[in-house]
Amino acid sequence: MKKIIIANWKMNPASEKEAERLARQIDGEIPRGVEVVIAPPFPFLSPLNQVMKKAKLGAQDVFWENPSAGGGAYTGEVSSSQLKSLGVKYVIVGHSERRALGETENQVNKKVIAVLTAGLKVILCVGEPPAVRRRGLAAAKRFVKQQLSKNLYGIKSYLLNTNRLIVTYEPIWAISSVSGGKSDTPEDAVRMIQFIKRVLKARVKPEAGILYGGSVDAKNAEGFLKHDEIGGALVGGASLKQLEFRKIVRIASKF
Ligand code: PGA
């Protein structure tokens, strides 16, 4: 199956012009055999949809109500139906930076349901904080298992089994803004991803991709992506550097 490389631009770049320029560059260099998703800040979604031909559009967050159902009285929020109307195909949900701002497991659950119901693909981020990992691998597994069970609580199997659920293992201690660029090791990421697959097995088709995220760059990408267990990468910092990101995408296309 094609590897998926997701560019999570977070709150970057500074202007629409820069966003369009970077998206054009990335889009013009995508080889066959890899799926590239660019997730810019909300205001750049629509302009990027105009310039991108190969890359898919992703959103970094979503709200769980839709205007028709909820009356739309949610200042500052954006619904999955609105994202869909802009050409969005993937939505990141439960990123640790959103959770750090107060997003609860229950809210993540509602967002996953909203995205799947809208017919979009969800990139659900799970991963333990540094304090949990200091207690060891077993503690990390327990933490992630709990997140998965809460985030996927009550979701009907016909929704989960559409190949539209993509889980990303993103240990918080390996995200570049926390770790200073020190990633997890591929071996550890594989162990955690195998564990996630086992946890999901009863509910989700085995083909469903599980990705790794956290300080992926051009130097370490191959070490992760060469493993069959790792379905791709969620790339933050390195996705804003055209040459660096191009290398990651090329590497992904080889596997
Ligand atoms: P990073 O970010 O690649 O800069 O570590 C990954 C993420 O937070 O999604």
Describe this structure in a few short sentences.
By secondary structure, the protein is an alpha/beta fold. 41% of the residues lie in helices and 16% in strands.
Question: Keywords for this structure?
Answer:
255 residues, 8 strands, 13 helices, alpha/beta, TIM Barrel, binds 2-phosphoglycolic acid, eight-stranded parallel barrel
Task: Provide an overview of this structure.
The chain is an alpha/beta fold. It has a single domain (3-253), classed as TIM Barrel (Alpha-Beta Barrel), CATH 3.20.20.70. The chain is built from 13 helices and 8 strands. The protein has helices spanning 16-27, 45-51, 67-70, 80-85, 96-99, 105-117, 130-133, 137-151, 157-160, 176-179, 186-200, 221-225, 242-253, and strands spanning 3-8, 34-39, 56-59, 88-93, 121-126, 165-169, 210-213, 232-235. The protein has an 8-stranded parallel beta barrel with strand order 1-2-3-4-5-6-7-8, surrounded by 5 helices. Strand 1, helix 1 (16-27) and strand 2 form a beta-alpha-beta unit. The longest helix has 15 residues, at 137-151. The chain is globular, with a radius of gyration of 17 Å. 2-phosphoglycolic acid binds next to strand 8.
Order of helices and strands: EHEHEHHEHHEHHHEHHEHEH
As a percent range, the share of strand residues is 15-25%
Biggest sheet layout: 8 strands, parallel, barrel
Tally the helices: 13
CATH class bucket: Alpha Beta
**End-to-end distance:** 9 Å
Q: What is bound: which ligands?
A: 2-phosphoglycolic acid
What Rg is obtained from the alpha carbons, in whole angstroms? 17 Å
Stretches with pLDDT under 50, minimum 5 residues: none
What structural class is derived from the secondary structure elements?
Answer: alpha/beta
State the helicity in percent bands: 40-55%
| Count of domain modules | 1
**What is the tally of beta strands?**
8
Find the CATH superfamily. Answer: Aldolase class I
